[in-house]
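[SOLVED] Predicted holo structure with ISJ

Edit: marking solved, answer below. Original request kept for reference. I posted the sequence and ligand SMILES and asked for the 3D complex as structure tokens.
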Amino acid sequence: METMFQLHQPHLDIKFISYFSPKPVIFFYQNSLSMTRCGMTMSASSFPAPSLSIGYSDQICKSFTLDNIRNSLIQQEDSIIFSLLERAQYSHDSCAYDNDAFFLDGFKGSLVQYMVLQNEKLHSQVGRYNSAEEHAFFPEYLPQPMLPHLQYPQVLHHCADSININTQIWNIYFKDLLPKLVTARNNDECGSIAVCDTLCLQALSKRIHYGKFVAEAKFQDAPSEYESAIKAKDRKLLLELLTCETVEALVKKRVELKAKSFGQVVKIDEADNVANSTYKIKPSFIANLYENWVMPLTKEVQVEYLLRRLE
Ligand SMILES: C=C(O[C@@H]1C=C(C(=O)O)C=C[C@H]1O)C(=O)O
């Protein structure tokens, strides 16, 4: 189906996303986020921009269910695993993290900070951070969108705007995750490293902050169950109420299987002999990553959201 945008602006990519609902929404964004400064071209990740369909917001509100949100979390596992697999091929100790390694338009900081900041500034211009799904690592530096502001359906309580734990995510990613993830040595392609880190951080941030949607859906399903714990500001009880151990066990098994599948190194010779499977990263690493901080941080976001839900 050709849209008016496709006819007049062929360079724009027309992509589709689901937003809790099986019915896709058509959006467009500039797809030439060329990070030539680091010799890499990075395509924008999918996020809603001005919708071309009418009355779509009703569809979103009807599809705002815990099951649909969980399905989105499952889809996001792929992005997280693939971005970590890409990053794992480069060495950990990189000049991309050295604040004094490069002169970057007067920017004071590391190449990876520069890459994330510039990426967010560019994406902000097409409305990425107007979406409740997206959270910037440098929100104080974002320019105003140049596209018409889309009135997204308000599925979250306004308290969601005050929750952004990206600083915590950044610190854990560089201090805890990377040293365990990266096994490659002497592959310090700092431009590629900065691009891969950007994608990893953005995928993890989106998944963890999805805790807001999960918390809202759980609150709407059983408000009275949460209200007394919220009024008592009982974080421990809120965490108990929102924790679902059977779901967590399934998440761990699924991400480990996906890591085995996506990260498998297949070696076959001319005689069709297939060597024993090896993996780009240990599949159990991904399961441990989810258990030790992706899911705990997602629950932390849920607790923070619920504590503010009755404001
Ligand atoms: C996201 C949810 O809330 C909690 C966090 C989970 C996660 O981060 O994967 C899974 C189950 C719950 O303990 C959910 O119930 O689906």
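OP edit: Residues 1-56 have pLDDT under 50 and may be disordered. Thanks to everyone who chimed in.
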